[in-house]
Design a protein that fits this description.
175 residues; alpha/beta; Rossmann fold; two-stranded antiparallel sheet; 6 helices; 31% helix; binds adenosine monophosphate
Length: 175
């Protein structure tokens, strides 16, 4: 299956979970084995040798763990506040519909490790920005950020590139 055919399975749900939000529902893509494999292999093609794969709760976990498996590398969860059991570091951020806090285990990343960071959607870029800061505060180096989709008109990718000029940011489609 071609990448564009896989991405065409993403379904837009207008006014969910609030009026004016165009929610990007990835479940039809995940339910299609060929599409899920195509996206996993595409994401894995961006990895450097020996990279760790970090995913953002919750939908980022789905792709990040599949990519980690594909690369035979480790998976690092970046979770919402209060979910990780060991000592954490936290980073708060604003998003398209509300505010939130992300956390990572303080010892999740070996200092100097290269990290491939994955989430499903870039809207304002706040979530990925907070995750990059957490990885950097752990001593990791974010080599590449990957998302399936970037919401048009919210300038999320542009904001990330301005704030983190050394980090590569790739989304497979703008919608
Ligand atoms: P942001 O921090 O504004 O870039 O928002 C990105 C995060 O919120 C991602 O983890 C997405 O899962 C979720 N998100 C934000 N907006 C949408 C949307 N329109 N459709 C689906 N997920 C979204």
């Amino acid at each position: 299956m071609q990448i564009d055919d896989a991405l065409s399975l993403i379904r837009e749900i207008p006014d969910y979970p609030k009026p004016s939000i165009r929610f990007q529902d990835i479940t039809p893509l995940l339910a299609n084995a060929e599409a899920f494999t195509t996206i996993t292999k595409k994401f894995a093609s961006f990895a450097e040798q020996g990279t760790l794969v970090a995913g953002i709760e919750a939908r980022g976990f789905i792709f990040a763990s599949a990519v980690a498996h594909e690369l035979n590398s480790g998976f690092i969860p970046i979770r919402k506040a209060g979910k990780l059991p060991h000592r954490t570091i936290s980073q708060s951020y604003g998003l398209e519909y509300g505010d939130d806090t992300l956390e990572i285990h303080i010892d999740a990343i070996t200092p100097g490790a290269s990290v491939l960071l994955i989430d499903d959607v870039i809207a304002t870029g706040g979530t990925i920005g907070a995750a990059i800061e957490l990885i950097q505060r752990c001593g990791g180096r974010v080599a590449h950020v990957l998302a399936l989709l970037e919401i048009d008109g919210l300038s999320g990718k542009q904001r990330l590139l301005e704030k983190f000029p050394t980090v590569n940011v790739t989304s497979l489609v703008v919608s």
